[in-house]
C-alpha cells in the first residue's frame, strides 16, 4: 500500500466514516476515492491531488487530533498494550479501540512488504523462537515469514516429542532458556493460560499463538483488520454490524478472541450459532454483554439471515472425546445455497482455517471458492502485515518501518492465487 492509501485508510478509520460519507465530506466522487485506494500496480489506480491531501490533513487536525488520550500520548504503542510493563501479546483484553486501530495503521504500512513490492531490514540480526506444541501451518509459518520479511531470522521447534518438555522440563525453565537464545517467542500450547506462564518467566516479547481453548489474539486482530478492509470497500462500518459466528464456539479460541475484540466497537449484533454442546462459554458472553451489544444464541443456520459477516469455524475435535455431536448434521454447513438463501451480495464469509474438507466434516464448503464474498484467503494474506505489525510494535521499530523500505529486486506474480483474479480491482 502506498503512503497515499495508508494515509486515506487511517483518515477514514480515525473519522469513523464509510467511503461514501468520507468522499462526500471531502467533496470528491466515491469512484475517485476508490481509485486512490487501489494498489499502485492496478491499471485504475490514480494519484490523489495534493490539495485533497492537504484538506484531509486539516479535517483530521480539527476533528480527530489524535487517536490517543493525552495521558497515553507520550507512550509507545508497546507500552500502551503491554502486560505488567512488558511487551507481550497474550490476550485481546490488552487492547482499547484506539490502540487496536493504531496497530491497524502499522499493518497498512506493512502492506507493500507483504505484497512483495518493498523490503525492509528493521529486524536485522534479531532471532525469533517459534515454540509450537500443537498442530499449526498458518500461525507458525506466517509468524516466521513476517519476522523474516522484516530482516530477522527464525528458529522453530514443533511438538512435545522433540522438545525437552518430553523429559519433564517446566514451562519456566524452557522459557528462561529460550530467552538466552532468541529475541522474541511465539508460543502455541494446548493448555489455557500456559502462554502467560511462558511470559512471566522472561523479559523478551512473548506472543500467544493459541493457548488451548483460551485465546488466539493475533488471529482475531487479523480477522478484524480483514473485516475493516472488506467493510471499507463495501461502504460499511464495524459499529452497528451484524456478525454471525458459526460452529464450535465452545472450544474455538479464535471466536473467543474475536468477539471480545469486536466488543470494543459500538452497537453490534452477534448471532452465535452452535450445536447445543458447543456454545460460547458464559464468561465470554458476560464480558461482551457488558458493552451493551445484542447477543442472540441459536442452533439453526437460518438465524444468520442478514448477517454482514458469517464467521465459520471448525469443530475442535482434538479438545474433546470423539462422541457424536448432537445437532451437527450435514444441514449444519455453510455453503453457496445457504448463503444465497439468507445473505446478500454484501455479506462476507470468513473462517480462521484450516477447514476440514474431509467427507462428513460439515465444515465450510468449497463450493464458494470462486465467490468474491468468500474472504478466507484475503484473511490469511492479511496475517502477514498484521503479524509484521505485532513484531514491529513489540520490538520497538514500528516508527522506523516506513523509512526503511527499499524496492524488492525480484518479480512477484500479480495474483498470488489462481482464484484471486475474480476479486481484482475491488480492494
Ligand atoms: N487455526 C485456528 C486455531 O489454531 C483454528 C482451528 O484450528 O480451527 O485455533
TrEMBL record:
InterPro entries: Asp/Orn_carbamoyltranf_P-bd, Asp/Orn_carbamoylTrfase, Asp/Orn_carbamoylTrfase_sf, Asp_carbamoyltransf, Asp_carbamoyltransf_Asp/Orn-bd. Residues 88-227 form the Aspartate/ornithine carbamoyltransferase carbamoyl-P binding domain. Pathway: Pyrimidine metabolism; UMP biosynthesis via de novo pathway; (S)-dihydroorotate from bicarbonate: step 2/3. GO terms for cellular component: cytosol. Gene3D superfamilies: Aspartate/ornithine carbamoyltransferase. GO terms for biological process: 'de novo' pyrimidine nucleobase biosynthetic process; 'de novo' UMP biosynthetic process; amino acid metabolic process. The keyword Transferase applies. GO terms for molecular function: amino acid binding; aspartate carbamoyltransferase activity. Residues 240-393 form the Aspartate/ornithine carbamoyltransferase Asp/Orn-binding domain. It catalyses: carbamoyl phosphate + L-aspartate = N-carbamoyl-L-aspartate + phosphate + H(+). Its EC number is 2.1.3.2. Keywords: Pyrimidine biosynthesis, Transferase. Belongs to the aspartate/ornithine carbamoyltransferase superfamily. ATCase family. Catalyzes the condensation of carbamoyl phosphate and aspartate to form carbamoyl aspartate and inorganic phosphate, the committed step in the de novo pyrimidine nucleotide biosynthesis pathway. This is Aspartate carbamoyltransferase. It comes from Pandoraea terrae.
